[in-house]
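Limitations
The structure tokens in this dataset are predictions for the assembled complex, not deposited experimental models. Users should treat interface geometry with appropriate caution, especially where small molecules or nucleic acid strands are included. An illustrative entry is reproduced here so readers can see what is and is not provided.
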Amino acid sequence: MRHCSHEWQVNNGGRGLYELTQKLQDWLREVDARVGWANLFVPHTSASLLLQENADPDVRADILDYFARLVPDGDHGFRHRNEGPDDMSAHLRSVLTQNSLIIPVREGRAALGVFLFEHRVRPVSRRVLVSFQGVMEED
Amino acid sequence: MRHCSHEWQVNNGGRGLYELTQKLQDWLREVDARVGWANLFVPHTSASLLLQENADPDVRADILDYFARLVPDGDHGFRHRNEGPDDMSAHLRSVLTQNSLIIPVREGRAALGVFLFEHRVRPVSRRVLVSFQGVMEED
Amino acid sequence: MRHCSHEWQVNNGGRGLYELTQKLQDWLREVDARVGWANLFVPHTSASLLLQENADPDVRADILDYFARLVPDGDHGFRHRNEGPDDMSAHLRSVLTQNSLIIPVREGRAALGVFLFEHRVRPVSRRVLVSFQGVMEED
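Predicted assembly:
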């Protein structure tokens, strides 16, 4: 068993879902991962991660709409507004979702698709830590 | 340290909470797990997992009621309705909970109970990936 | 690769956010962790964990306010009220956040800050299971 890790810089176009599945599969192949666990970790508190198939784009639109209603931008109850109306709402959307995901890996492949869930409105560059712990092809 | 994994087929009776604790304990004993981490992973986007003691059944009823109010079935805002009024609400309930859980294992036992959280109304058969990474009895 | 674990008793002052970051860093140094994953696990269903920088205290106040609105204490819909108006709301706030977090460790340090998120109103003593899986300094 081994541990290996890497860091990605993911430039996104602002609020939305950005698929990381292929990027993760490519990295798992590159490090020769066979069976174990992958971890994706977003070390930011206004973006998160979402396990999701790349299925119907309507699902992704509905997810964004739902969060817009659940945690509205510019809510008058918010004290923290330093970076605009999407500042505190982005933090809360991150709290209600996940910044760290363990994804089982079998035969070198992740068990489900994964997206970066960007909560800030404007384009942002995010760090994503990717790591794998388990058995490699050559073990 | 080793990694071992298995897959369960869990047939459920539709929307509700189904305890997996004993199934997990039995599997941990079967593979001779001693100390480490167990992972449960639901590779579906309309069911999830819940850490919970099997305590008061009222707690489980209140959880179901609360989610029925937080993400109502058949919400008129939803675009995605292919599989009925509980289709998109099931996806969103899954987004707001967790599909992958790490549970510490000590002396061969998981640190807390765990349930499958089925969000679709009708009975469904779900895959649950179970794995353990850590030290075995014979290590 | 190794696994090591410990248990903390965290006495808190009731509902609020209590930073565990330094406690985790100290423990990682004590066990000589170098690179791998840390896990924090709260084996209770009315408290949880939050990844957060110790930034603006307004952010923490807004998080508490938001959860007070999202899951109000003493909601008339709740059946389970054994331990008062903050009993079921505490369970639901725990369901909507996380009780188990994997945090990547590099050069002996955790990738982001972490807080105990206490949902009960009165001061409580909580168990927090901490563990590390990965490569130690002497490996």
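Some entries come with short summary sentences. For this one: The CA atoms of residues 29 and 108 of chain C lie 6 Å apart.
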